[in-house]
Design goal:
Pathway: Lipid metabolism; Phospholipid metabolism; CDP-diacylglycerol biosynthesis; CDP-diacylglycerol from sn-glycerol 3-phosphate: step 2/3. The chain is α/β, with parallel strands linked by helices and 386 residues long. The protein has a single domain, classed as Glycerol-3-phosphate (1)-acyltransferase (3-Layer(aba) Sandwich). 56% of the residues lie in helices and 12% in strands. It contains 13 helices and eight strands. The chain has an eight-stranded mixed beta sheet with strand order 4-3-5-2-6-7-1-8, sandwiched between helices. α1 (3-33) runs parallel beside α5 (128-134). The chain starts with a helix and ends with a helix. The model is unreliable at 365-386 (pLDDT under 50).
């Protein structure tokens, strides 16, 4: 990590980690003392606590880096956002798609009840992963044999969720990169599927399971498409921390759950068809650099995240000063060494967060068939032609 970057990352990291640990402690307290007696009361309390932490990351986008998140949606979709349970099916375009989702959830009034299906290792991340666990995020191992029952039980737990929630599902199974696109194109060519240009091939088992178990209590599916304009740099976590702006375009389209096909195979095909349409929509976005100005919705830049960060900063600065005054920590070499080690730990943790978010370090979805199988299929096709 370069020195200028570290100079920014360390103070922001201190703010996030210290405030996050406070939030985690309160989450644990209410999880132990309230949840056993009233799960819904705990959920309402946790929603407020989670927002106090996650609004810091919304502030990072809105006010620190000044990233512009442009929402495109028809009027019906826009009016229902945040007012109902919804399964959000997203493409995974950038390192910060999940943060962009939090920004739009905050605009819609459901940030504290915004959920997602994440890889299992995410819950081990200090502060943010722990907060997600307390908030009932679903964590999978990317092995369907292990994940099927975990996903089913996690979805069933949401049946009595007392507040409108979004459950985000990245059905591509991994973040988009050119290398993964080439692998997806090779796989599509070998199996007779439509060859993607801007998305990866969806892994439909999780989506089919979600639809199957959420039909009775989730009224809508949001088809969410994320795109980066041609004249905007790709947003990354390190760019956010450095305060470097970007622009992200997000298209929302609402589908009624009651209109979904009944059979699992038909639901899987519906998902694949949506991604073919999503690919075409992204082609149009590349050509026009917009999802259509007639569907643009100005969501503004709410002051709430700025107010929360100011409050956290004042509280923590006051607390640290009182602690230093009480302990005289910086008056001895041991105290200085302890402070230096603490700052080093913060730097390492923030570096871990940044590396964890990078798309080039994410694990690709295992969808490609073996070469032997490909050759067998090609030989069979050639025999049929002759």
């Amino acid at each position: 990590m370069a020195i200028p970057a570290a100079a920014v990352v360390v103070p922001l990291g201190l703010l996030f980690l210290l405030s996050g640990l406070v939030v985690n402690l309160f989450q644990a307290f209410f999880f132990i003392l309230v949840r056993p007696f009233s799960k819904n009361a705990y959920r309402r309390i946790n929603r407020v606590l989670a927002e106090l932490l996650w609004l810091e990351l919304v502030w990072l986008i809105d006010w620190w880096a000044n990233v512009k998140v442009h929402l495109y949606a028809d009027l019906e979709t826009y009016q229902m956002m945040g007012k109902e349970h919804a399964l959000a099916m997203c493409n995974h375009r950038s390192d910060i798609d999940w943060l962009v989702g939090w920004v739009l959830a905050q605009r819609s009034g459901c940030l504290g009840s915004c959920l997602a299906v994440m890889k299992k290792s995410s819950k081990m991340l200090p502060v943010i992963g722990w907060s997600m666990w307390f908030s009932e995020y679903l964590f999978l191992e990317r092995s369907w044999a292990k994940d099927e029952s975990t996903l089913k039980s996690g979805l069933q737990r949401l049946q009595d969720y007392p507040l409108p929630f979004w459950l985000a599902l990245f059905v591509e199974g991994t973040r988009f990169t050119q290398a993964k696109l080439l692998a997806a194109q090779e796989y599509a060519t070998s199996t007779g599927l439509p060859v993607p240009r801007n998305v990866l091939i969806p892994r439909t088992k999780g989506f089919v399971s979600a639809v199957s178990h959420m039909r009775s209590f989730v009224p809508a599916i949001y088809d969410v498409t994320v795109a980066i304009p041609k004249d905007s740099p790709q947003p990354t976590m390190i760019r956010l921390l450095k305060g470097q702006p970007s622009v992200v375009h997000v298209h929302f389209k609402r589908h009624l759950m009651k209109d979904m096909p009944e059979s699992d195979d038909a639901v899987a095909q519906w998902c694949r068809d949506i991604f073919v349409a999503k690919d075409a929509l992204l082609d149009k976005h590349i050509a026009d650099n917009t999802f259509g100005e007639e569907n643009f919705r100005d969501t503004g830049r709410p002051l709430k995240s700025l107010a929360v960060v100011i409050c956290w900063s004042c509280l923590l600065i006051l607390g640290v000063l009182k602690f230093l005054q009480w302990t005289s920590l910086l008056s001895s070499w041991k105290g200085i060494a302890f402070s230096t080690v603490s700052l080093g730990i913060v730097t390492v943790l923030m570096h871990t967060f940044i590396q964890f978010s990078r798309s080039d370090r994410s694990t690709p979805a295992k969808v490609a068939p073996s070469k032997a199988k490909n050759r067998g299929e090609q030989d069979a096709n050639q025999k049929k032609q002759h």
